Structures are given as structure tokens and as C-alpha cells.
Amino acid sequence: MLDIAQSLGAGFATALTPLYLYYALLGTILGTITGVLPGLGPLGAMAILLGFTLTMDPTGAMILFAGIYYGAMYGGSTTSILLNIPGEAASVVTCIDGYKMTQKGRGGAALTIAAVGSFIAGTISILGLIVVALFLSDIALRFGPPEFLAIGVAGLILLMRLTGGPLLQSLIMILVGMALATVGVDFLTGLERFTYGIAELGQGLEFLPVAMGVFGIAEVLTTVQDRQVPRKVGRVSMKELLPTRTEWKRSVPPMLRGSGLGFLLGLVPGPSPVIATFTSYIVEKKISRRPEEFGHGAIEAVAGPEAANNAAVGGAYVPLFALGIPFTPAMAVVLGALMLHGLTPGPNLIRAQADLFWAVIASMYIGNLMLLLLNLPLVNVFVSILRIPRHILLPTIVLICLVGVYSVNASPLDLLLLAIFGFVGYVLREVGFQPAPLILAMVIGPMIETSLRQSLSITGGNLADIVFRPICLTMYAIASLAFVVPLALRWFPRARPAAPGVPDRAADDV
Amino acid sequence: MTATRDRLQVAAAVALLAFALVYFLSALPLSMGTPGRPGPGLVPAVIGGLLVLCTSAHLVHTLRRSRPRPAADTAAPARRNRLAIVGILASTIVYPLILEPLKFLLATAAVAFVMLVLLSPGRPIFSLFLALGMAVTFFVVFSRLLGVALPGGALEHLVFQIVR
Amino acid sequence: MRRGIIALLAAVAVWSHGGAQPVAAEKYPSRPITFVVPWGAGGMTDVTARLFAEKFKEALGQPVLVTNKPGASGILGLKYALGQKADGYTVVVGPMTEALASPYFQGAEPYDIKDLSFVASYMPQERVLFTTPDKPYKTFQEFIEYARKHPGTISVGSGGAQWALEVLKSIAVKEGLKMKYVMFKSGGEASTAILGKHVDVCETGTGTPAYQAARDGKLTLLVDLGSETVPFFPQAKTVKQLGYPFSTVVEYGLAVRAGTPEDVRKTLEDTLRKVVTDPVVKDRLAAMGLTPRFLDGKSYEKLVVEAVKSVPELIEHNKALQE
User: Fold this and answer.
1) How many domains does chain C divide into?
2) Does C139 reside within a domain?
3) pLDDT tens digits along A290-340
4) Which phi-psi region, left, alpha or beta, contains residue C88 (left: φ > 0; alpha: ψ -120 to 50)?
5) Do A202 and C72 touch (CB under 8 A)?
6) Nearest to A336 among C46, C102, C216 (CB)
7) Which of B152, B154, B160 sits opposite C19 (nearest CB)?
8) Residue B110 with chain C: CB contacts under 8 Å
9) CA distances, A462 to each of A146, A319, C160 (Å)
10) Helix (H, G, I), strand (E, B), or coil: what is residue C37?
11) Quick one: which of A125, A412, A108, A470 has its CA closest to A263?
């Protein structure tokens, strides 16, 4: 324990030298920009800077990348909350209540809560990162295809309960999302599926154009249609930017729960940060005393998922440092940077490059602190976006979506998808469907299909071998509990009478 | 709920069912494989089957629910807004088509101009300059600041040199 | 009024395109070059492409932008690059062997190699088969023996390379083995699967986490599915040395669209030669377990054509396994 403190102290000493502080600041600023602008994301920003890091030492490069990574996570919620544009899958859940808060004039408070939640989550996940990287380094290896399948299925079951609407509608959205995700070349066999002879569809439907379509573009279309007099935000006083005392009180426990949940799920490779966000949302909704506010701008629904998202992405560094295995494309770029500096990633990295490891850990913390200090004043700047007159703001949003989507793959097809799904999202919204499950199922669907087929191949088609494993059984048990308990409560309504004044949502479920 | 709303509900339910059927039928020719060697068609067939069931149920539900109701008078103001909706959608569809031939700055400015004029008619000069300004700003942010490769010709090269 | 604005826009459009001509006639390169990477960010191709982009920028004095066009084992990126102007400002980077072989595996229309003009290659990569040290088999022969005695029990993983997996299947056909084949998306995922013992043996490329673990002695190298040597494993035998007819070839390089002026292609070739022989680049790649090797455009084309020729045969040969 003492030498950990000592190493960490040495790490801080290294990270606090002016050059490394400069890199951390540069990284956090760049990360914030890429995070705020939907599209490019930390992956693109780091990839572009990969060549540039050749002129730095490896520690500097790692500090710069960590800054970008965390910065993008902080910035990622901005457009979700203010404009209803999720820049990444992990921000989709934030859109649900974050944007509702903006419509109620509490956008500033939501941004502040998101920033503080991110900071708390960052702190907790960095501590967790140290512990897990040192003592449980091989935890990621225990997850094989059957375990991924279990997580995917559990996530799917929870997803059905994400939005309050009828269960049938949620199910349809989930299935449509999963169906869309199967378009393209099946990488297990190399066969094209559902491409109808269009070569560009071979790479599949990208998440981003679909998400920005059904959220961003659809929101613009809905706004244009409602011919209400544009609500002037006008001058916003500092008091309105800051969360009220009640909002603070309601946010802190979700932040802590979200951080813990996010970090644990973040240790699992794959799209777990996304699962962490909606798991946190559902947990908060279940234990809240005001579940009816969820979906209409509940502060807990911003605080919890945002913290979960940030804590989970911290977890992604564990397999990278501990095993040299990148589980996300962004981590693959970090790995690439390490390799370009002649560092052999792998189990020995933490021991052989202790100075680098601790300096990066220390700078992550410094970066988080910088981001908090950077983001709080920025809330004011971002909220002022809403003061732009509507007839200029709406075209700007469309342009952000267009250029943002184009910046990722330079693909005209992606732009076309953006338009199509903008229209689809607009119609779905008009007829009362919630688009969030569709988008999230697009992320989880491929995970389920891949791991199901891999599991079947490995076991030779033996279902019992796939299900009866400790981790899998736990996952299935938790998920079925979350699903069965509400059903059971409905069948025995007298066991727990509904709170007075709360409409019985269960009655709407089909 | 108005009559148009109801018609939209039914249309959306039919569209969803149509999507489900097309998807399911396209999934069937794919190989299902065996339990030990699952093929690429297994999961799509399951998804497609469930989707057909769910969307059918939804359509029945929608039809049963929708009854003629006294229509509220909302049709009148909808016309001009429909123009804006169609205009914005058209802009996003046209953008990828003109991006390569016109290059980034002109294509972006053109699309921005159309949308600005649609939303604030009567100020074409202002809209034109605003559109150009937006295009240049986006170009500088994405190309110079973030290093994204955008389709460029001489005009883009010029801006690239100026802000170097 | 509005018509006037449209006329103005049209005039600007004409000017901007008319103005492009003299610029293009200047000495190459006079504007930024784009590297198209037909694989995702962070992969081996991407990392090397970005390293070269930086070095090309130093050598040519123009920025080099890297854009990822992943999908369909390189086909989409290649198609995109071939759809651009043949002016040398769009260069596709990656293992051309893979991109040209994949249509055969996918049953798609194969590429006409004449559409491409090969610039040069910069490194070969070997695909190697690993196992965990706790297994009863330590060599490839022992593995074959064990697999024969235990039909249908051994699971074979692949790190996303159809060609390498087919080479393994061709061995199974020859030896009459019954095994379970599992495909993973990338070398990273396959590495997790073998390190976590979720599969019995697994194939990945050199430079992946599994390969690094093997260098640390945490995995055993069984055989080289390629046809060169495996860095840091001088004793590793190739499948061809063991008497099997097929092997997989991965050769990374640069290509442009056919019809690109020869002096432009030559400029790129010369620059790549300079970059690959740069001691810093050599060191960096060697530390990753990669062995940079320069082949000029002609030799690269010859190598790719030769290698891809064996693919339809391999697929025909493996049909025996499907029954």
C-alpha cells in the first residue's frame, strides 16, 4: 500500500512538470472540442494526432491522449442536453431527460450536473483503475463469447424497460434496431446481408448517422413543424445556470451509484459503457420516489447515466494497461501510440514502465480537475447557443449533423442515411414511438449475434454449456429479476399499492 | 388526437409491418446453418420472425383504437411548415450529391443558404453572407483544427492557406 | 433577386473549378495528399499508415491526411480509392493481398488488378497459430495427432482473417480432422479468447497482443501459416515447410488508381523507400514485432498476383469440408 502511495506521488511529481501539464491542458481542450462537435469523437481526434505524438516522449503522448479521451467524454453530453443530438452511443440516454430539462429552461443546470457527475465518476474510476490494474489484471480474460452473450441479453431485457411507453412499442423499436444492425457484410462468413446489391451498404449502417438522424434531424423537423413562437431564452442569470439545492441533493446519490455501476460494467469489454448508461437510468427510475418525472426532465436521469458513462470509459484503460489488449477502437489507437514509441504492450507494461503508468494515472486525475474547471464556465457559453434565433440555430444544427457525420467516414451514403433516419425519426416521434431503444439495440444487437454464434461454434451447439456458467447465470438471474419483479407486482397488486397520484403505467403495457 | 394523426398512426403501423416483412423475407434465403455451426441467417430469421409478429399485433391494436374523432382545426397553419420540413429534408438529401462536384465550401454554403431562406424569408442578402460565413467556419474548424479530410478544390485550398 | 444570387453562385463554382487547373499542373504534390486506410482506426494498417503520413509530410512538404474506410475486408476502401481521380492525391494503404483476395471468399466479383497501380510495399506480416502452454500438444505435429484422436472437440479461433482460417481448414481436409472453427472480429478479440482459454488454438497476425504474449512465453507458437519468417521466433516452421500446399500471404503496401502519371507514382515510390529505410521507422516497427521490407511497385504487383492466384484453388480444395 505504501509503495502504491509512493509511486502515485512520484507520478504526480512527473505529471505536474510544466510540459506534461501543457500536454494535459492541450488534450483536455482538444477533447472537449471533439466531444462537443458530434461526429469525430475521441477516436478520430486521437487517430489524427497519432503521427504528431512521434515528436513527444511516450509519457507525454499518453497524457495527451488521456486528456482527449476524458475531454471528449465531458463534452459528449453538451449537444445531447442542449440540442438533442447524441454524439456517441453513450450519450443517447442523456438525451432523454437532458433535452427535456433544456426545454424547461434547466439546460444550464443539467450541464453543470453532468460536468460534476463526470468529475466524481472520473475520480472513482481512476481509483478503481489503480486497484484493478494492479490486482485483478486478468479480469477481462474471464469473458468469453458465452459471457458476452449473457451481458448482451441482460442488457436487452433491461432495454425493454428503458422508456415508459407500451412494452410492444419498445420491443418493436429494439427489433428494428437489431435488424438494422445486421445489414452489411457478416464478418464471420464474409457474406453480404440485406445489401440489395448496393456495395456501400457492405460496411453496414453506421451508428452515428442513424442516431443523429432520429434525434438531431428529427428534432429540427419537429421544431419547424410546431409553429409556436420561439421561446426566447433571453438573459440567463447565474442563478438559473446553477442547479438548485434540491437538484444537487437529488443528483449526488445517482452520481455515486452511476459511478460504481459504470466502473464495474466498464471492466467488461465491448459496448458496456452504453449498457452502463441505461442500466443506471433504469436503476434510478426504479428506486426514485418520483418515477413519473423520468422522461420529462428528471435530474437523476442526467446525473446517473452521465456518471456511469464516464466511469465506464475509465474502465476501458484497464485491459489496455494490464494486458495490452484494446477493447474499443479508441483504445486501439492508444495502443498504436504506445507501439509507435517502441513500448511493447502486454502484462509487463505496468512493471517495466512504472514511471509512465503512474504519471499517466496522475495526469488523468489532473486532467479531470482541469476539465471540471474548464467546463463549469463553459456552461454559460454553451447555453448562450440557445439564444441564437431559431431560424439560424436550426440550419446550424442540420449543418453540424451533416458535417459531423461526413467527418467520420467521408461517406455520401452516411449522409443519405442521416436524411432518411431524420424523416423516420420524425414520423416515429409523431406516432408516439421512443427512438432511444432502437439506437441502443443497434449497439447491442451485433454483440449478441456475434457472441451467440461464437458460443454455439465453440460448444458445438450445446446450449447448456453456454448458459450454465457462473458469470452467465448471475447475469441472467439479475436481468430476469429486474423484469419479473414488476410483472409479479402487477399480478399481486395488493401486495404493494401504487403511490397515490401516480398513474399506473403498467396498465398501458400490452 | 386528430383524424390526420390517426391516419399517420395507421400509415406508420403499416410501414413498420412492411419493413418487417421485407426484412424477414430477405433473411429466409440466408443459410441458417446447424446448431454447432450457425449460419449468417439464424439471427436475422429470429429477429425478422419476431418483428413480423410484433408489428402485426401493433397494426391490429392501432386499427382497433383509431375511431373517427372530431377533427381539430390544425390543417391551416401546417402548409408553410410542411414546406420547411420538405426543404430541410431535401437539403440533407441533396448535400451528399453536390458535395463532390461543388466541393465543401460551395456545397455547404448552398445548403445553408436554402435552409436559411426557408426559415427566414425576405432576407436573402443576409442569408447569403451568413451561409458563406457558416461554410467557412465549419471548414476551418473541421479541416484546419481537427484535420479532417474534406472534399476541396481551389477555393478550399485558398482558405486552407489563409488560416494556416 | 434570388435568381441573381444563383447566377453568382454558379459563377463562383465555375471560377473555383477553372482555377483548379493551373494548380494541378504544378509540381506534385502541390496540395494535401489523402491516405485511404480500408481498415479501422488503431489497427496495424492504420498505425503504420499514420506513421508514414507523418514521414511523407516531412519528405514532400504537404500535409498527408489519413481517412479510414473500413468494411468488407478492405473492399470498400479500395473501391472508394479507385473512384477518386487518378492524380496521386488519393493513395490506398494496407495489405493489398487481403483486399484483392477477399472478394473470392465472399463470393463477390473479383477485382481487375489492372485498375490498380502498385506504388510499393513496406512489410510482410505472418499469420501464426498459437495455443496455451497447458495443452498436451506443444508442436504442430502433436497438435495434429491430438486433433485426430479427439474429433470435434478442438476449437480453432481466427483473428478476423478468412484466408488464414481457410488455410487451417485446408490442413484439416488433408489430415482428415474434425474441428470447430470460430471467427473473431480482430486480432485483439482473438487474443483475449486464446489468453482466456475460450478457444484451444487461435490464429492471429504478428504484432497482436497474443503474439506479444507468446514472446513472453505465455502462449506457445505452433506453426506459421504464412511463407516467410516470424520475428523473434526463428525456429517457427511454415505450413509449406511442413508439406501443406497452401499458405496465406499478407503484404502491406501503397497503391494508386491505374492511370496515375508515372512520375507521380515514382515520387511516391521513392518517398516510401526513403521512409521504410529510415532507421527510426525501422526501429519502431521492429519493436512492434514487424519487419519492414521495401519492394518496388513491380515486385509488389508480382507478389500480390502470385499469392492471390492460389485463393480460388484453396476455396475449391476446402469444399470437401462443407459436406
Assistant:
1) 2
2) yes
3) 888 998 999 999 999 999 988 987 778 888 888 777 777 788 888 888 877
4) left
5) yes
6) C46
7) B154
8) 9
9) 11, 30, 24
10) strand
11) A125
Residue to mutate among A222, A396, A403, with most B CBs inside 10 A, is A403
Q: Closest Cα of chain C to A185: distance in Å?
A: 6
C132: domain CATH number?
A: 3.40.190.10
Q: How far apart are CA A98 and CA A107, in angstroms?
A: 7
Chain B residue with the nearest C-alpha to that of C20? B154
Structural domain boundaries enclosing A370: 2-508
> What is the pTM for the complete model shown?
0.84
Which residues of B fall below an 8 Å CB-CB distance to C? 36-37, 102-103, 105-106, 109-110, 113, 117, 124, 128, 147-149, 152-155, 157, 160
pLDDT at position A238: 60
Task: Report DSSP state, residue C146.
Answer: H
**Does C111 fall in a domain?**
yes
Query: Which own/partner pairs from B92-98 qualify as long-range (CB within 8 Å, at least 24 positions apart)?
Result: B92/A217, B92/A398, B92/A401, B92/A402, B92/A415, B92/A418, B92/A419, B92/A422, B93/A416, B93/A419, B95/A402, B95/A415, B96/A412, B96/A413, B96/A415, B96/A416, B97/A412
Complex ipTM value: 0.90
Nearest to A415 among B48, B96, B115 (CB): B96
Q: For residue range A32-86, what is the model confidence (pLDDT) as tens digits?
A: 888 888 777 788 788 878 877 878 888 999 999 999 988 988 888 898 999 998 8
| Count of domains forming chain A | 1
Write the pLDDT tens digit of every residue in A385-394.
Answer: 888 888 888 9
Are C119 and C165 part of one and the same domain?
Answer: no
- As a whole number of angstroms, the distance between CA A470 and CA A359 comes to 37
**Residue C3 falls within a domain, yes or no?**
no
A412: nearest CB among B54, B96, B115: B96
C268: domain CATH number?
Answer: 3.40.190.150
Q: Do A461 and B26 lie within an 8 Å CB cutoff?
A: no
Q: Are residues C39 and C92 in the same domain?
A: yes
Residues C132 and C120 placed together within one structural domain of the fold: no
Q: Domain span at residue C217? A: 127-225
